[in-house]
Amino acid sequence: MTKGRATTFEERIEIVKFCVEHQHNYAQAAKEFQVSYQQVYSWTNKYIKFGVDALQDKRGKRKSENEMSELENLRAQNTLLQAENSRKQMEIDFLKKLDEIQRGRQ
Fold it and tell me: Contact 24/70 with Cβ under 8 angstroms?
């Protein structure tokens, strides 16, 4: 089995094109381009179902606010508010503990 490697969007297009032109021979494409069989299979199926844009690597990318639906936007705001609330609660707990320690020394 060939270990997968990082590929660019253009490489993925070329690999899928090669695979389709060779009657979906995933093993040959994997060997030719030194990527894993599973990746060739996955990219080819994504291309067939969703088109060339599906070959983009979207990991780690966030949607901009205008791309989000109202529900997604509200969930994002809720998550931010929960994180802020948690940080403020930790600060309050820390200050209480500090006050407790200072009273013990006096």
Answer: no
75 lies in a domain? yes
Mean pLDDT of 17-41: 92
pLDDT on residue 59: 78
| 40 — pLDDT class (breaks 50, 70, 90) | very high
* Contacts of 83-87 spanning 24+ positions with Cβ under 8 A: none
What's the structural domain count of the chain? 2
CA distance 81 to 50: 36
Residues 42 and 77 both lie in one domain? no
31 occurs within a structural domain: yes
Domain-located, residue 30: yes
SS (HEC) of 24-93: CCHHHHHHHHCCCHHHHHHHHHHHHHHCHHHHCCCCCCCCCCCCCCHHHHHHHHHHHHHHHHHHHHHHHH
